[in-house]
Amino acid sequence: xxxxxxxxxxxxxxxxxxxxxxxxxxxxxxxxxxxxxxxxxxxxxxxxxxxxxxxxxxxxxxxxxxxxxxxxxxxxxxxxxxxxxxxxxxxxxxxxxxxxxxxxxxxxxxxxxxxxxxxxxxxxxxxxxxxxxxxxxxxxxxxxxxxxxxxxxxxxxxxxxxxxxxxxxxxxxxxxxxxxxxxxxxx
Length: 187
Description:
By secondary structure, the protein is mainly alpha-helical.
């Protein structure tokens, strides 16, 4: 919804707010660890699934991808809906949102990959073995890398851990490529 607002709606401070959102891309995720840790500690939410995925739900990259996608949608569609008497909310949910399936799929895959490959935040947030993600679980199985003697076993675990990403890509490859090409200006 933020991407649609930045791309298609005119309001005061839009450019400044969008610039601040894009400035979030320059902030390294490590700089957010202390505020995130304190926030989830106050909520007693460490060692929960919410603590593992909520910090990655709304990322500036997602807003940027969606703004680029919505800029490619002609204004004539929303104008035609307004002439037919549709409200802006109805226009968004009935006309615009169904068109965003490729872009939302691409964004979902990007977010999933970023969350799947994240090592540091799950290491900080999940202290119980039941809550370990694949990356922290693999690291906990491997003690000291310098003294590793079973590198074949380590490589096999890493290969198996990457299978869900490969399967996800193969299933959604059509949407991913279409979403990327549509957001870059190609139709």
